[in-house]
Write a structure and sequence with these properties.
The protein has 278 residues and is mainly beta. The protein has two helices and 15 strands.
Length: 278
């Protein structure tokens, strides 16, 4: 168990060191006039900007042995101009999972989890409130029975945000129901809501709180919700001419199912490709 835990903690430390190293490198780069604009685009899920986030989620304290789970979400975001009035924003989540055996103090499974994709139809010229709506899909791509729900899923997704002054305030939500898949697996009815509160500081720094609340409507009473609270800090920077966004945060699960993790460390690095930038 100690060996597996050291591996998981080592992964977390490596991601943290990567973010901190890149931030230090950014300090030697020339300041850019559009840092504030990039910060707000980076925090807008339906911005007209290609981005490739790498989000490492390290979940600590899985019962009954206090084990650690690691999930690396690769989340490419691609905007498509449909017309003068409408954009289509595709947001795909590809999870790579390290899943410890929760029934023992050793043993684990690693591999690809179920891919999730959201498609937001969003006005190309938004007002003070930026919004998008469209379908959310789940694909049973998990490479192991422990890493997949074995079901195709479909449902609605929605995002809305506003950006007054230094603030970026918004919410993104979806609900997915199973529409096919393995007959011997339980049907899916799951809800996700992420609210985000960001305050942008000088020189590309920002404070952030973006907990992800989830509900499994098929679970028994008292076992449905995961409700975290927390926050962190991030920075917009460049390595050479490449704009990037790095952040780190911690979230405590105030509500969780039996056996769920106590808290989460989230480390993220985002490659950004703004429209018109070289």
């Amino acid at each position: 168990m100690q060996t597996k835990r050291k591996i998981a903690l080592g992964i977390g430390r490596n991601y943290l060191l990567l973010i901190l190293t890149l931030v230090l490198l950014a300090g030697t780069a020339a300041a850019q006039d559009d840092t504030a604009e990039l910060a707000k685009k980076a925090q807008n899920p339906v911005a007209n900007m290609i981005s490739v986030p790498f989000q490492a989620n390290i979940n600590f304290g899985l019962d009954p042995y206090g084990r650690t789970q690691g999930i690396l979400n690769i989340q490419p975001v691609l905007p498509i101009r449909l017309s003068e009035n409408w954009n289509l924003i595709t947001r795909t989540i590809v999870p790579v999972i390290y899943q410890p055996d929760t029934w023992a103090d050793s043993g684990s499974t690693g591999g690809l989890g179920d891919i999730q994709a959201s498609f937001f139809f969003s006005p190309a010229q938004p007002g003070k409130v930026i919004w998008g709506v469209g379908p959310a899909l789940q694909l049973p791509t998990g490479t192991n029975a422990m890493l997949t729900q074995g079901k195709w899923g479909l449902g609605p997704s929605f995002v809305a945000l506003t950006m007054p002054g230094h603030w970026v305030l918004g919410v993104i939500s979806s609900n997915v129901w199973s529409v096919g898949g393995q007959e011997d697996r339980e049907d899916v009815n799951q809800f996700l809501l992420q609210y985000f509160i960001n305050y942008n500081l000088p020189k590309g720094w920002y404070l952030t709180s973006a907990p992800i609340l989830t509900a499994n409507w098929k679970a028994e009473a008292g076992e449905k919700w995961v409700v975290p609270f927390g926050g962190g800090v991030g920075k917009i920077f460049r390595v050479g001419k490449q704009p990037m966004n790095g952040s780190i945060g911690a979230y405590y699960n105030a509500e969780k199912p039996d056996g769920g993790p106590d808290w989460q460390l989230r480390v993220m690095l985002v490659l950004m490709y703004p429209a018109g930038k070289k």
